[in-house]
Amino acid sequence: MINWDAHFCLPQHPQADFTPIAELQAAGVNYVSVCVGADMNPVSQVMSVIAGYRATIAANPERYTLARSVDDIIRAAAAGRIAIGFDLEGSLPLLEQPEMVDLYASLGVRQIHLAYNRNNSAADGCHDSARGLTPLGYRMVAAINDAGILMDCSHTGRVCSLEIMAASGKPVVFSHANPYTLVQHGRNVTDEQILACAATGGVVCVSGLSFFIGTARPSAADVARHVAYVAEIAGVAHVGIGLDICVRQPGLDDTPPGAFDAGYWWPETAGYQADQPPSFTPTGVWRQLPAELRKLGMGDSEVLMVLGRNMMRVAQQTWLAPAA
């Protein structure tokens, strides 16, 4: 049994404390994708974060494994370690160079989406005007496929996400998104997007963030309800978990350098308010999810699919085998 959390955020700082990762493992998680940067983070910050995270993983080999393959995850779980991969939220850190994708892959990035809420030169954000995937964006999708990285459509505009899914030669995921039918927020995904993702062979991983799940204090039951909806629409083989827990740690300022405008990235017109930050599920939700999913009629094998087997399948179909 492998439990797979498709998106988790530590402070974007090289000295981030990995205690929350250990807490995830204690709750039963075997693999977690940790964000190393987004469109608002300059490359200098992203590279500093990657270097710091890699150093922490390397310094604690008895606790952590930087995963390159599904086999690495399985071996880590058997040895009592949690496997970690990195994800990148947006294409701006790629500097408009598809060749950058291979570099990030070599550093541990296993998942990329092309736009974070706002439009850029490759793709559209979900809180911006609809233009569609650009010529550069098509090249980026091809580069992500070729590098053996999961193509992610979280935070991406609806029309653009459909074009990405049509262009990708490999399964596409939403690593942290919820059904728009249940909660009408621009970050959530429509039934059309859910079905298009499933048609690629991909997985929609449900988030536990309050804005997107529709409750002030999200619980395992709330997550399970959203999981059940995706399963009903697209089939249980196409739903997973990406709780999108974001951790803040005293003394670590991970604000992007320069003239950072939070209101641009999280606009009030889309429902964000600076004085009302989101809340997140506790990591212990992972212990409660099996029972909550069974309450909604899922059998044991279906629960295992949701908690990790679906994402393992997609990774096996996508990630390149490590060089001998």
SSE inventory with pairings:
Elements: E1 4-9, H1 19-26, E2 31-38, H2 43-59, E3 64-66, H3 70-78, E4 82-89, H4 100-106, E5 109-113, H5 135-147, E6 150-152, H6 158-167, E7 172-174, H7 191-199, E8 203-206, H8 210-213, H9 220-234, E9 239-241, E10 245-246, H10 262-265, H11 285-295, H12 300-318
Parallel strand pairs: 1-2, 1-10, 2-4, 3-4, 4-5, 5-6, 6-7, 7-8, 8-9
Helix pairs in contact: 9-11, 11-12
SSE order in H/E notation? EHEHEHEHEHEHEHEHHEEHHH
Query: How many domains would you count in the coordinates?
Result: 1
Secondary structural class: alpha/beta
Low-confidence residue ranges: none
Under CATH at level 1, the class stands as: Alpha Beta
Question: How many strands, what sense, and barrel or not for the largest sheet?
Answer: 10 strands, parallel
Number of helices: 12
User: Rg, please?
Assistant: 18 Å
Keywords: Dipeptidase, Hydrolase, Protease
GO molecular function: metallodipeptidase activity
Protein name: Membrane dipeptidase
Enzyme class: hydrolase
